[in-house]
Amino acid sequence: MKNRRVVVTGLGVVAPNGHTVADFNEAIQNGTSGITHFEELEKLNFSCQVAGIPKYNKDYLNNYFTQLQQRGLLATGLEYGVIAGMDAWKDAKLPVVPKDESPNYDAGIIMGSGTMGVGKFREAILKVDEGKVRRLGSTTVLQTMASGVSAYLGGILGCGNMVTTNSSACSTGTEAILLGYERIQSGNAEVMLVGSTSDSGPYIWGGFDAMRILPSQYNHRPEQASRPMSQDATGFVPGSGAGALVLESLDSALQRDATIYAEILGGHVNNGGQRKGGSLTAPNNEAVQRCIQKAVANAQIDPNEIDAINGHLTATTKDPVEIDNWSKALDRSGSDFPYVNSLKSMIGHCIAASGSIESVASVLQLHHGFIFGNINCEPIHADILIQVDSNRIVQKTQNISVNIIAKASFGFGDVNACVIFKKFKK
């Protein structure tokens, strides 16, 4: 039962530039930015007053939550994660187990998060400090526990396999995909709903603003603010949302005659140990390169088979360093370097949700045969052009049938994760 093939049979996404897969797919092909100015951040004296927040009417929640569940709901990450997860499940055409039946013991969930329910935390802290603990309500714990999103989805869908939440900063979503992949590959599950979610709002982003790693020059030009790989990049734009993928054994998918979006060939997760230049906030480049090389080896492919890279590329001074790491890890440069893009140019850095949302974008590129263009990357950073020909940094969407895409995420804590997706062929 080991080393079984694992495929993607369902997608769900809640992103700043689209809260359905169809809208998101259209937005990334058209280069539509989801970054906007937020008056609330301006009133609170944030240096960076632009961000990426999914936009939908509150009535939209009626499709996913009961009226009872919506009472006192102040956890945006919970909203995004449940919407994306339920949409992915529906997209995969998997059944919801009736309440009076046994759960599906072959189906599990790994939906990661960085924080959960910060808005609910704030409300609870104020009430506790006022001596009103009895007025907290019955859902405060459920909305603020890190595993709340997985717990909600597990109950809604009736999953009886592993239902849990991982957390590894910006690599959370990519790591969740690999954890689910390994669980199916080893024969411990047939189906895994995987992904990640991230809250929105000033209480999430305030700490990053205080670190002075967010851009402040584009408050009145929000769509130009996120500039991965650009010489003019001055910091990452905060974002939020959720991405979800249904992973399934190939045997199960074929038996159900499911739509197969892509295959996962393998991947790798490691940590730089905060050594050799690595720290709580900076990567150990040796570990980054090792993570990429191990992912390629685990996928049993040659580095030259990689057609495109969906990078982490946050629009900071570390972008040229990341490109250099990819070039050294794959031993490819110039016009031989794979196509490279960064979704953050359109939606900002969705922190814990970034890896899963960007993986959804990677799978859509394979399935529909295109490479989405980077926006705002002109002028391309001079140090990047030393490693990569400019024509490998796609600036307008191209209809190219790619076969293999590498997606990686790197994050605080010196964490790294890289997954290899392939266009599905029987």
Kindly list the characteristics that best describe this protein.
426 residues; two-stranded antiparallel ribbon; 17% strand
Number of helices, where a helix is a run of at least 4 consecutive DSSP H or I residues: 15
Alpha carbon gap, first and last residue: 19 Å
Helix content: 25-40%
Assess the beta-strand content as a share of residues: 15-25%
Cα shape? globular
Low-confidence stretches: none
What's the total number of strands? 12
Integer-rounded radius of gyration = 20 Å
* SS content category: alpha/beta
The major pleated sheet works out as: 10 strands, mixed
Mean pLDDT, rounded to whole units? 96
Secondary-structure element string: EHEHEHHEHHHEHEHEHEHEHEHHHEE
Oligomer: single chain
* Strand line-up in the sheet with most strands: 5-4-6-7-1-8-12-11-9-10
Descriptive account of the structure:
- The protein is α/β, with parallel strands linked by helices and 426 residues long.
- It has 15 helices and twelve strands.
- It has helices spanning 21-30, 39-43, 67-70, 76-91, 118-129, 140-144, 148-157, 172-185, 202-210, 250-256, 285-298, 319-330, 344-347, 354-368, 382-387; strands at residues 6-14, 35-37, 50-52, 107-113, 163-164, 191-198, 241-249, 262-271, 308-310, 339-341, 404-411, 415-422.
- The chain has a ten-stranded mixed sheet with strand order 5-4-6-7-1-8-12-11-9-10, sandwiched between helices.
- β11 (404-411) and β12 (415-422) form a beta hairpin.
- α4 (76-91) packs parallel to α7 (148-157) and α11 (285-298) crosses α12 (319-330).
- The radius of gyration is 20 Å and the shape is globular.
